Amino acid sequence: MAQTGEDHEKAVETLTEAEAAQELAELAEKLGAANLAYHRDDAPEISDAAYDALKARNAALEARFPKLKRADSPSEQVGAPLAEGFGKVRHAVRMLSLANAFDDEDITDFDARIRRYLNLADDAPLTYTAEPKIDGLSLSLRYENGTLVQAATRGDGSEGENVTENARTIADIPQKIEGAPELLEVRGEVFMSHADFEALNTRHAAQGGKTFANPRNAAAGSLRQLDPEITRARPLSFFAYAWGALSAPLADTQSGAIARLAAMGLRTNPLTKRCEGPMELLAHYGEIEQQRATLGYDIDGVVYKVDVLALQGRLGFRSTTPRWAIAHKFPAELAWTRLDAIDIQVGRTGALSPVARLSPVTVGGVVVSNATLHNEDYIAGMDSTGAPIRDGRDIRIGDWVQVYRAGDVIPKIKDVDLSQRPADAAPYSFPETCPECGSEAIREPGDSVRRCTGGMACPAQAIEKLKHFVGRTAFDIDGLGARQIEMFFHDESLPIREPADIFTLEARDAKNLAKLRNRDRFGEKSTANLFAAIDEKRRIPLARVIFALGIRHVGENAANLLANHYSSWTAFAAALDQIEIGAGAEWEELISIDGVGAVMATSLVTAFRQEAERAVIDRLVAELDIQDAEARNTDGSPVAGLTVVFTGTLEKMTRAEAKARAEALGAKVAGSVSAKTDLVIAGPGAGSKAKKAEDLGVELIDEDAWLALIDGQ
Question: What tens digit of pLDDT does each residue of 685-711 get?
């Protein structure tokens, strides 16, 4: 396999918005090309591990910078556009992809997420199915009255290629089945066994023809032949594992439905097993992994699905993946290399992040020269509680270290070979002063990260805060990106050292003898365009301003919550001015906002109370026309504008469902009861919140009354 090219070396948490936007554009291009090569052309150019790593990097960037998500985002794509030469088939039910997991913790997290969504206790029974993930080509088979009438590839998930005549040549695909519903769309995987692949390549080589790189390419290329007779001459196999459109249910469970498909004469995988909980899933994963080399066909992981179909229905789907299923991929390649140095990077919030500089090594098809070291505890061989990791082995410069990539955002160090440790290697001493400004770097109790105390006096923090301010998810000023911020920050005659300086730039330039338009990379037109772009952003929504301030713990989602709650900058700033941390009605109101806790609230109040930082904020606000948060159109809603609190156990819907429904109807969902609460919905087990509501005279209703109140909305 060809390699992916240059590796993304910077940790996601250290990227600026401009850097992230550029990288997302590069990833969209790389992943788009990889999708075409794999799904349409059957000639992949990068390894699966490299593809997974790029996809995970893209997802991590979008999670940190959601406003940068592109219209052509790879995370919203399934498969690839169709090739020429085949008729098109519109899938009645979309053929989606699966989310990926790469370690045991991902699987226990998967189980925990499902339990939270369904409001199931940790010890409540929850069954799954586990089946090998075949490395082949997805295929949809449509049966009407038991007769095969159509076969289609997945394509882009919504529309596939009509390969009906080719599918009819595959022995594992019956032309007629017994006991099927009137309409049944079977879904499965076309693949080629190792023995058949070797025989095909031997035959083609003897004839001077094309040989295939691997069985997956051979299977996909064989199925997608314009001449069905070529497909007939190539040995293809098929496993059924799912279904799409149905006229009647197959069973109540995934395992029951698969058994019924087998009874109809369709080939299903004998290693499919029903499992109770994540521990049984992981045990079966281990059994399948041990058999991997002897199966006779390629698999690249194990797929887990919630067994009860009614629960699958409740869990539903994300944009491209179901919530009720996940693919547990086999580990990617590991590699050993030398740790040459440890560098410290300082982020926007002052966090000191250690990065390993490695002798370049190929891991999963990608050349790796950097790896994250997380924090000083990780380097010392401990977790944040002091418990040992890597059996307590610390990491030292000069060590021989094992690196893995799998689906992680950037490479990590898995282990250290003490037998190859240099005799003069000393334990790493984590800096207690900032390498950028020399200020003290402290570690607060309960925090795993050491942070510079220099604030805006620290060039790394000041520049990063300004880059954050002009990022796409914040002020997004055309012509003023990370590179320009760097230039203006160090400029002595026309500096930008704080956000307000951006909006006084034109006035200050007018007073300068040396004009901006006469500088390198600036001209009359580009300077005029920059000043116009800055002026355009003087009028800006409240949520963007709150987010752009770069206050620790206040991300984009939190900024929206705060903007929707306080509605205007005047109300927001006035509330923060009145708040005493940990006490009073204003403090209770702030932490009652669902999604705002004491840590975030303390960070907000502290930022507004620090004289220097508040002066920076006030100078900025004086230059802006901040727009109030838009109210939702909730005409006719009986709960619009009300502040509601859910407490106790909800029996008809999960807490997440209830919260989403209430907010859609214009209600504000708070996490605690205060004098400003309008309504408390109490389920069984409601405790202190219900009592506080009674003490405050707040209306208290049960879940049935709540559902009756919003019925029809």
Answer: 888 888 888 889 999 999 888 888 887
